[in-house]
Design goal:
The chain is α+β, with helices and mostly antiparallel strands. The chain has 13 helices and 28 strands. The strands form 7 sheets. The chain has a 15-stranded antiparallel sheet that branches. The longest helix is centred in the C-terminal third of the chain and has 21 residues.
């Protein structure tokens, strides 16, 4: 692996993710926690050196005098991360996890970092350098033999040392001029020590016994393995699917059931470019997709919680659904730039908040209704309160579907009549009618059916381009867009319809590079932003799904296997791939992991049904 000091930033892919279902942290392969926001996903950061190595803040436990990247793995079937280091003197491990926080919203977060010497002798360097409030909040550090307190006006963090009675001060701590904490943890074979970071200031500093952190480790392992055991997936790609399921669960805010698009902000889609967005919020679209993927695996509780969250959003609002919300349901996510941070490898601006929350994106209604209809098929029935909210959504959509919007990709170059947005409006009415019929619910059936049929006719008339022999990105244009790959999945067009097969062929000609798929060509369809972007991993896995549904199973399997090689060493994916194959964008990305699950399920089904025995090229 490359040296961690290259550009002073580790690769985006050189990270694992841990979390407690209320927030999450990135752990780099050099042993550095370089992203951690508390107490929630969308709270200000305490550690954010992934966005500014000098001013972002970090917590590192790694071999003293050696910043090389170690190797990472997850404890099987869990979100417990292990980073292994080999030194001249021995072999060491750092085990990182966050005990699950439960479904009650709290401000207390615990991050456990266990250092273990596996063989020989290892000196672990300890560096704790918090930078509160996105690096703008000063702090004071108080140290005792049992740990330290990092005191900030709004948020403080307690560090408890993991040690045994009688230890000859295995952890030697000192405070720097910047109020950072440095120390060395010297261990011999078989020893375990470490630290516990805790945002609870309700008690005195205390030394934590090794048995206590080992018990917390066992409880955390048990939680994740018990949860994953509910999966009904037994297909060919179980390891990748299981890791994606755990990742989607890690992106869930348990107190409300909201699912964030990613746990990070401002990781660039292009190094040095300006496509740097904050994804720590719940997009109705992304969360609906994620719920559908989890339902494919048999996880119904998550779907029920998300449905309740959505009903709350509608009842609390004074108009249509917003594109995105904070995890607590607040629609206020103003976008601002942190000018004091340089950005990952100099990729400025660093944005927090997201102005897309004020956009019009008509497709979100279709994704929502599709997910709820799938939940209905898994035995989750819509109650009276929920149906009143859903009926209100469709009543609003009935009068508003036929207008330009910003679309699924949240372009900032103006509104257009996007084909995908129209198709998903068709999906909304279609699924609403199905739910009403299957449950015998009251509904203005004739009006909704008329809207559904009118949209269907319009898309075929204006979204299908006879010259290109394909469904195109938007009306009155011949530009292609990978979002149309989902038209087959939602049933708008049959998988073997000649028009659909022609669309697949056109997408492959214009948007596929070595079996990786671009969202669109910004030179042909300007999106209001500078620069270009890499291939979009969601679209690559969508391509796999549609190849499988079209019966091209040999090709689908090859593309899928290629895509799996782009995961990092613990099975995680960012949003995009650069020209050199490097992962780019926020990490890990719910979009990519949910699409992987969908592709694996679709391909398993197609292979089980039998497909064409042809050479895949």
């Amino acid at each position: 692996m490359p040296n961690a000091e290259q550009h002073d930033y580790p690769p985006i892919a050189a990270h694992g993710l841990i979390g407690d279902l209320q927030t999450a942290a990135l752990v780099a392969a050099d042993g550095t926690v370089d992203w951690w926001c508390v107490p929630r996903f969308d709270s200000p950061s305490v550690f954010a050196s992934v966005l500014d190595r000098e001013r972002g803040g970090h917590c590192r436990i790694g071999p003293a005098g050696d910043r090389r990247l170690g190797r990472q793995l997850y404890f099987p079937d869990t979100a417990v991360l292990i980073t292994r280091f080999t030194t001249d003197g021995g072999v060491g491990e750092v085990v990182d996890f966050m005990p699950p926080a439960g479904t009650m919203a709290t401000t207390r977060r615990r991050l456990v970092r266990m250092a273990r010497c596996v063989r020989g002798k290892v000196d672990f360097a300890l560096e704790v350098a918090p930078r509160f409030e996105y690096g703008t909040g000063p702090h004071r550090t108080v140290v005792t033999d049992d740990g330290a307190v990092f005191e900030n006006t709004d948020t403080s963090v307690v560090l408890h040392v993991v040690r045994e009675p009688g230890d000859p001060r295995a952890t030697d701590l000192r405070v720097t001029d910047r109020q950072d904490l440095h120390g060395v943890i010297s261990l011999t074979e078989g020893q375990v020590r470490g630290i516990v970071l805790d945002t609870n200031l309700g008690g005195p500093l205390r030394a934590v016994r090794v048995a206590e952190v080992e018990e917390a480790f066992a409880d955390t392992v048990r939680f994740w393995q018990t949860w994953l055991a509910r999966s009904n997936y037994r297909g060919r790609w179980r390891e990748a699917v299981d890791r994606s399921a755990i990742t989607l669960k890690l992106l869930t805010y348990a107190p409300t059931g909201a699912i964030v698009a990613a746990p990070t902000a401002a990781l660039p889609e292009r190094i040095g470019g300006g496509r740097n967005w904050d994804y720590r919020y719940t997009w109705v679209r992304d969360a609906s997709f994620a719920v559908s993927a989890l339902l494919d695996l048999g996880f119904t509780d998550e779907a029920a919680a998300f449905a309740r969250w959505l009903a709350d959003r509608y009842e609390e609002g004074d108009g249509p659904l917003k594109v995105l919300y904070r995890v607590d349901g607040s629609p206020h996510v103003p976008e601002r730039v942190l000018d004091h941070w340089e950005g990952y490898r100099g990729s400025a601006p660093v944005r927090v908040g997201n102005a897309a929350g004020d956009q019009l994106q008509l497709d979100i209604h279709g994704e929502l209704f599709d997910a709820l209809h799938r939940a209905h098929g898994h035995g989750l029935r819509v109650g009276r309160r929920g149906w009143r909210a859903l009926s209100g959504v469709l009543d609003w959509l009935e009068g508003n579907w036929d207008q330009p919007d910003e679309g699924i990709w949240e372009t900032r170059g103006g509104r257009h009549d996007f084909t995908y947005g129209r198709v998903m409006s068709w999906v909304a009415f279609d699924r609403g009618l199905r739910i009403a019929h299957e449950q015998g619910l009251p509904a203005p059936v004739e009006r909704w059916r008329a809207a559904r049929d009118e949209i269907h006719e319009q898309v075929w008339r204006r979204g299908w381009h006879p010259g290109r022999r394909a469904f195109v990105q938007r009306y009155d244009s011949d530009v292609l867009d990978a979002s149309v790959l989902r038209l087959g999945r939602v049933g708008f067009v049959a998988p073997h319809d000649p028009a659909w097969l022609d669309t697949l062929a056109a997408v492959e000609r214009d948007l596929v590079l070595d079996d990786q798929v671009l969202r669109y060509d910004p030179t042909a369809s300007p999106d209001g932003l500078d620069g270009v972007e890499g291939t979009f991993s969601l679209c690559t896995f969508d391509h796999v799904s549609e190849l499988a549904r079209a019966g091209r199973t040999a090709k689908a399997r090859l593309v899928f296997e290629k895509a799996l090689t782009h995961a990092n060493e613990v099975g995680l994916y960012a949003e995009e791939l650069g020209p050199d194959g490097a992962q780019l964008g926020n990490f890990p990305q719910a979009f990519t992991h949910l699409a992987l699950v969908e592709a694996a399920v679709a391909l398993d089904r197609a292979l089980a049904a039998g497909g064409e025995p042809t050479w895949p090229w």
